[in-house]
Write a structure and sequence with these properties.
heterotrimer; A alpha+beta (95); B alpha/beta (257); C alpha/beta (304); A: alpha+beta; Alpha-Beta Plaits; two-stranded antiparallel sheet; 5 strands; C: alpha/beta; Nucleotidyltransferase, domain 5; 2 domains
Chain lengths: 95, 257, 304
């Protein structure tokens, strides 16, 4: 499943996509994110699955434009910690 | 040399008249739905305030959402440049400037000469602009001017879930029904709004001194929330922050004229 | 399939000047008798604006209700369940398993567990529209969801926007109030115009309101402003669907499915024919929840 967390508002699109088929629930993204954006737990959109997968935490879903801002400076963008930490390449950002 | 800077903003249109780096006149009127008319009125007001005639003005600079409507403008001044110039003019020690107006929020990193090194903009979404606080004031049934002082009387901030101004209105109404103190609600509103501007500043880097311009700079509650969220001693706000961009436009007109 | 919809437009008389109001309803399947049922389950969807309860007997919809959400989620869940059960003779303690969903899903006191509205809407749409459905659009009171599902109603891709009021029922309510047009008349009135206007250009509802006020002042008629907003809303919703793409066939659930001012314009942009159902489009979430409950009980994973 491709889980798109985030939103679109007048200022633009802000989505973090997690490919739950690729995610192995290793929690590397959780430790890598300095702002607590990522979490790992049962896949709440697949009630009959027992696999744990990464997700964007409930409290951050509506403000990732802002919370993720410091990891996306306007100049000289380093690789994003969450994306870099993900072995299977399950995480991508839309902006 | 006498120059005029006209900032046609979403809510107010402001004119500043500058004589050799000194502000000699100001005018501000509601923009309403007729920008051209607002520009004329604010200019008239500023001319009257300065006690000069239109013929005395050598150059005009236009800026703001309606800068294209400023027909007098010799130069159209980019809003980021205008705010950087103005911040440097008021406080030469400024390295970060944020301008929060009715319908936008901006932040820029500037050098010792007032030149822009990096910037970020939030527009087209009321969550990160003065319109957010205005909408919340209506929901709280409090005058906009009272919002800031009220917030500063509270030391309790309740986390707000809604980001969108429309949804935050309902959340505020819910808090009122739950008999939450209006002062605490007001503080939460300012904190929520400030945290959005702060993450914009973090994105370009927090470098002191930090200067705030724009109409929201008149709101002491917001300035305090911004200060505390940025964990700095002081936010530098000029006497009339709403005229910031207009001052910047007049300065650019002077330089380029 | 039994048809239970009662379009809100049938009762146009407004009691109060609350332009966003619509009609509540409940329905019982005349072909089913709960006494014959092996498994009885319930799904309760507590949304920000409306709440629904669906009762399922052996995997078929037995009864449902559709009501406004009050200020309190547990109470809204209770009212919805009572209203669905009303007149059916089914005692509440006969329900084997109950699942809560929606925005207030963790506040459904009678629920044995909760499941996200994403999962429930896909499952519900799969039932209401049939297994050919691949893309489900749900425009609710405070959110907009686009979901892809497979032939079993399992989610394969989704996005949900509940951060911004643009493109949600709330955005439309704000406009209905601003223009003093009852929400149930928005669709018809938005087509009662001479020429389709340009859409409102601001996405942000706060700014769109200012823009609309300006349009009215410059002489636009109320219906033209409505049309311009319906059109902006259609574009906005389409831009969300575009992110995950459209896989046919396409179904629309939620309250906005009843607003043809937005939906007809959306379909014109998308150039496709949406699937049809005789069911009330607002019950998809609760139906999905009740059907999940049925599956759990059938698998022996129900209440111990």
């Amino acid at each position: 499943m491709k889980a798109n967390y985030g939103y679109k508002d007048g200022s633009g699109d802000y989505f973090i996509t997690i490919d739950t088929d690729k995610c192995n629930g290793c929690r590397e993204c959780v430790s890598a994110c300095p702002y607590g954006v990522m979490g790992v737990g049962p896949d709440e959109n697949d009630p009959f699955s027992d696999d744990e997968v990464a997700f964007v935490t409930e409290q951050e879903r509506k403000k990732i434009k802002y919370t993720c801002g410091p990891c996306k400076p306007m100049k000289n963008r380093p690789p994003l910690p969450c994306v870099a930490a993900c072995g299977p390449g399950a995480i991508s950002h839309s902006w | 040399m006498i120059t005029a800077g006209i900032d046609c903003g979403a809510k107010n249109t402001k004119t500043v008249i500058l004589r050799n780096n000194e502000i000699i006149g100001k005018g501000s009127v509601l923009t309403g739905f007729d920008q051209a008319n607002a520009i004329e009125k604010s200019l008239e007001e500023a001319l009257k305030d300065a006690g000069i005639s239109p013929d005395d003005i050598e150059k005009y600079g236009g800026t703001g959402a309606g800068m294209e409507v400023v027909r007098q403008a010799d130069t159209q001044v980019n809003e980021i440049k205008a705010m950087a110039k103005a911040a440097h003019f008021f406080f030469p020690s400024a390295r970060t400037v944020t301008d929060v107006g009715a319908e936008m929020g901006r932040a820029a990193k500037i050098n010792e000469e007032g030149r822009v090194e990096d910037f970020d903009i939030n527009e087209k979404c009321a969550a990160g602009a003065g319109a957010f606080i205005e909408a919340m004031a209506r929901a709280l049934e409090v005058e906009l001017e009272e919002m800031g002082p009220m917030a500063n009387e509270s030391d309790k901030s309740i986390p707000m879930n809604a980001q969108c101004a429309i949804f935050a209105e309902s959340e505020v109404v819910g808090l009122i029904h739950a008999k939450t103190n209006k002062k605490d609600i007001s503080k939460s509103i300012h904190d929520a709004m400030a945290s959005r501007i702060v993450s914009m500043i973090r994105r370009i880097g927090v470098n002191e001194d930090i200067v705030m311009l724009g109409g929201v700079g008149l709101n002491p509650g917001f300035v305090e929330s911004l200060r505390s969220e940025l964990e700095v001693e002081k936010i530098f706000v000029p006497e009339d922050p709403a005229f910031g961009a207009a001052v910047g436009a007049a300065l650019v007109a002077q330089e380029e004229g | 399939m039994a048809g239970g919809i009662k379009m809100p437009g049938e009762e146009k008389k407004q009691q109060k000047q609350e332009f966003w109001r619509w009609t509540e309803s409940n329905w019982k399947n005349p072909d089913l008798d709960w006494n014959d049922a092996k498994i009885v389950t319930a799904g309760i969807d507590v949304g920000s604006v409306s709440s629904q309860a669906v009762i399922v007997t052996d995997g078929r919809i037995f009864a449902y209700s559709n009501m406004r959400t009050g200020s309190d989620s547990p109470e809204s869940a209770r009212n919805a369940l009572n209203y669905a059960l009303k007149g059916t003779g089914l005692p509440e303690d006969r329900i084997d398993y109950c699942i809560g969903t929606g925005y207030g899903r963790v506040n459904v006191p009678m629920a044995d567990r909760s499941i996200t509205e994403i999962a429930c809407h896909a499952r519900g749409a799969h039932f209401l529209y049939g297994p050919e459905v691949r893309t489900v659009l749900d425009v609710g009171g405070q959110d907009c969801k686009a979901i892809h599902c497979d032939g079993k109603g399992k989610v394969t891709d989704f996005l949900m926007n509940d951060k911004c009021a643009a493109g949600t029922g709330r955005g439309m309510e704000v406009f209905a109030d601003l223009l003093s047009v009852p929400i149930i008349e928005v669709g018809d009135r938005s087509f009662d115009i001479e020429k389709e206007p340009e859409p409102v250009s601001s996405t942000c509802v706060v700014y769109a309101k200012t823009e609309a006020t300006g349009l009215l002042r410059s002489g636009w008629k109320v219906n033209e402003v409505l049309a311009a907003y319906c059109s902006a809303m259609a574009e906005r919703i389409y831009s969300l669907i575009e992110r995950i793409g459209v896989e046919e066939r396409f179904a629309i659930t939620g309250g906005m499915a009843k607003n043809k001012g937005v939906i007809d314009r959306l379909m014109k942009i998308m150039n496709i024919e949406p699937m049809k159902t005789e069911w009330d489009t607002q019950i998809a979430g609760a139906a999905g929840a009740a059907l999940f409950a049925n599956t759990l009980v059938a698998k022996g994973k129900g209440r111990k």
